[in-house]
């Protein structure tokens, strides 16, 4: 077994970074997950963050996308299903931290549970299915940072649903990486727009309140993931396409501001 150069965890099949040459566990295999020292030098074959219109000249990137990509679509491992279940349990518990909502309005509570669950699941599945559609291995994994952020949300008025992330394996080009990263926040923006329409079309107080929750949680989750640094989706999208990042974060920001008025 080989020890991960980031966390020291022993793994049977380590990932070798094409930028710095280090060996890492699945959780830290991507350059931004292990504070890669070689990323700025631009070496290696992964080419994360560089968009291109042509692929045929580069033999490094043809492997993951040869043949039909659909044979891997919608596949889940036992570990992934377990991690998704753990994340979902945490997310479902979040609405219970909203003071008084459970006992006074049980129907609203049930609706809020569904909204939180959909915001989390559809975001992560969008990443997973987009990556699988491109022919890469992709599975959701719980991580310590995400768990801490989600648990802290229980004690904060700003609710964040981020118990883990989708890990992706395979040599990829920058445009694939950017599109995969954008899929999650776009799903939340789409959900927020749907709830916005519900709030405008239906006059009942229950529908309006659920619409408010839907717009708020989805727009805040999109904004959080679109932060342009670290391991967030926004950093990867910005390196791929600045216009896509500006447009998506502006849309998420406007939706969040509207829900706060």
Give the low-pLDDT segments.
40-70
Main pleated-sheet profile:
2 strands, antiparallel
Following the backbone from N to C, one meets helices and strands in this order, namely EEEEHHHEHEHHHH
> What class do helices, strands and sheet pairing give?
mainly alpha
Mean pLDDT level: 80
- What is the number of independent domains? 1
Key attributes of the depicted protein:
single chain; 261 residues; mainly alpha; two-stranded antiparallel sheet; two-stranded antiparallel ribbon; 8 helices; 51% helix
Question: Could you explain the architecture of this structure?
Answer:
With 261 residues, the protein is mainly α. It has one domain (45-50, 57-260). 51% of the residues lie in helices and 8% in strands. The protein contains eight helices and six strands; from the N terminus they run ββββαααβαβαααα. It has a two-stranded antiparallel sheet with strand order 1-2. A two-stranded antiparallel sheet has the order 3-4. A hairpin with a 6-residue loop joins β1 (2-3) and β2 (10-11). α5 packs parallel to α8 (242-260).
């Amino acid at each position: 077994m080989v020890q991960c150069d980031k966390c020291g965890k022993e793994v049977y099949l380590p990932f070798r970074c094409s930028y710095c040459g280090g060996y890492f566990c699945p959780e830290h295999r991507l350059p931004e997950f292990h504070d890669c020292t070689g990323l700025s030098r631009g070496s290696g074959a992964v080419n994360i963050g560089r968009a291109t219109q042509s692929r045929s000249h580069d033999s490094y990137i043809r492997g993951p996308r040869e043949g039909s990509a659909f044979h891997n679509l919608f596949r889940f491992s036992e570990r992934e299903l377990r991690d998704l279940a753990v994340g979902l349990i945490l997310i479902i518990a979040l609405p219970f931290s909203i003071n008084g909502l459970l006992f006074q309005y049980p129907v609203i509570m049930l609706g809020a549970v569904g909204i939180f669950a959909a915001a989390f699941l559809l975001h992560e599945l969008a990443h997973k299915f987009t990556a699988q559609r491109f022919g890469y291995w992709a599975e959701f994994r719980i991580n310590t940072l995400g768990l801490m952020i989600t648990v802290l949300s229980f004690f904060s008025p700003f609710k964040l649903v981020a118990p883990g992330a989708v890990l992706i394996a395979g040599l990829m080009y920058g445009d694939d990486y950017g599109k995969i990263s954008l899929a999650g926040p776009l799903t939340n923006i789409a959900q927020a727009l749907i709830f916005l329409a519900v709030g405008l079309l239906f006059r009942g107080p229950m529908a309006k309140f659920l619409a408010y929750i839907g717009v708020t949680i989805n727009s805040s989750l999109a904004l959080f993931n679109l932060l342009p640094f670290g391991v967030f989706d926004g950093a990867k999208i910005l390196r791929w396409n600045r216009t896509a990042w500006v447009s998506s974060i502006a849309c998420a920001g406007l939706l969040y501001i509207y829900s706060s008025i």
